[in-house]
Design a protein that fits this description.
The longest helix is centred in the first third of the chain and has 16 residues. The N terminus is likely disordered. The strands form two sheets. The protein has a six-stranded parallel beta sheet with strand order 2-1-3-4-5-11, with helices on both faces. Strands 7-6-8-9-10-12 form a six-stranded mixed beta sheet, sandwiched between helices. It folds into three domains: about 45 residues, no CATH class; about 130 residues, Response regulator (Rossmann fold), CATH 3.40.50; about 130 residues, Rossmann fold. It has about 350 residues and is of the alpha/beta class. Helix 1 packs across helix 3, helix 5 crosses helix 13 and helix 8 runs parallel beside helix 9.
Length: about 350
């Protein structure tokens, strides 16, 4: 009995549909198919355009962009570098930008820099090598490659945190100094003078500007420097910084009862430490944060927060990129309108509260 032949598994190979196959399927020339795919339809009939588009869909054709990118020295890719995707606010902003870019026909490449300058530089170089159409940075840090890219690299757009090395770089986001002033004005108007101020590293321009706005506003309202208690810790994530800084405040003989945090995540950390210390975080303390984190209505009803809704960043960022691509050299910062969301409870220390 003859031996049984070994059966070899059939290997499946992914075969890319070619432009020639699309043209043959639609019954048109390769040149005609190419023009229609690239949006040049003035020489083609409505029926021809419909046939080509139907063939594209039926064959699942996707044009290779690398050739065009090499010819034009740019691609459909827009790089987005975020300082900390674990921060729900940054993730929500990134999602808003991705949707707006996709609606305009661009592809977003998302990278997490982990608030590290060396990682940011690595991704900036990679985006340059990939001929990215532009690079958007949410939470930029000072770095050597960033300095070079401003001069010789893809267009840069800074979101939520201004360019740390050049004040006039294109920016979309909150007016960080002004929101600090607005919070200070609100505190002064409510008769609140003694405040605990929690911040992380001041290397980042957003926190620096917010803090300065708060201090200038309080000073203008007659609040003395000795009435503002500063607490911060270096080298940790915002949750841990808020927790550790709140410990510093609680260790004081008479800790301030209004706690102003330079980000909502700092407030989350401070809130946990207050609970562990046996205080009531609602009646004993009042927390104010920055960013309007999308999680706040779900898990932080105790938090007052000032900021911009994340879904407003997408269209504003794409509009800014279009202006940059169109060569508007005088294109300035785009400040999105901010709002202060109060949780409806009196802040400890208000004149109306009798304290």
């Amino acid at each position: 009995m003859p031996g049984k032949k070994d059966s070899k598994p059939t290997s499946r190979k992914s075969v890319r549909v070619s432009l020639a196959e699309v043209a043959a399927h639609a019954g048109v020339s390769i040149a005609t198919a190419s023009r229609i795919i690239n949006g040049i339809t003035n020489k083609a009939s409505t029926e021809t355009i419909a046939r080509v588009k139907a063939s594209i869909e039926e064959l699942c054709y996707r044009p290779a962009s690398i050739g065009r990118a090499l010819r034009c020295q740019e691609s459909r890719i827009v790089g987005l570098l975020a300082a900390a995707i674990e921060n729900p606010m940054m993730a929500a902003i990134a999602g808003s930008i991705e949707k707006a870019l996709r609606d305009e026909g661009y592809v977003m490449s998302l990278c997490d820099t982990y608030e590290r300058a060396d990682v940011q530089d690595e991704y900036l170089l990679e985006m340059h090598a990939q001929l990215a159409r532009a690079v958007i940075i949410i939470g930029a840090l000072k770095s050597p490659v960033l300095d070079r890219m401003r001069i010789d690299g893809p267009p840069l757009l800074f979101v939520n945190r201004p360019d740390p090395g050049h004040a006039h770089s294109p920016y979309v986001g909150i007016d960080n100094y002004q929101v600090g002033r607005d919070v200070a004005d609100m505190l002064v108007a409510r008769g609140i003078r003694r405040v605990g101020l929690i911040h992380a590293s001041l290397d980042a321009t957003a926190a620096t500007l917010r803090r300065q706005g708060v201090l200038d506003g309080l000073a203008a309202g007659g609040v003395g420097e000795d009435e503002v208690i500063h607490a911060h810790v270096e080298g940790l994530g915002h949750l841990k910084v808020g927790y550790a800084a709140m410990q510093q405040i609680l260790a004081l003989p008479n800790p301030p009862r209004v706690i102003l945090c330079m980000s909502d995540l700092l407030a989350y950390g401070a809130y946990r430490r207050v609970i562990e210390a046996g205080f009531d975080p609602v009646s004993d303390f009042g927390f104010i944060g920055f960013d309007e984190n999308p999680l706040n209505p779900w898990i932080a009803g105790w938090l007052n927060s000032i900021g911009v809704a994340a879904d407003r960043y997408g269209q504003a960022s794409v509009a800014a990129l279009k202006a940059i691509w169109d060569g508007e050299e005088s294109y300035g910062p785009v400040y999105l309108a901010h709002s202060l969301r109060l949780n409806g409870k009196p802040l400890p220390g208000e004149l109306s509260s009798g304290r």
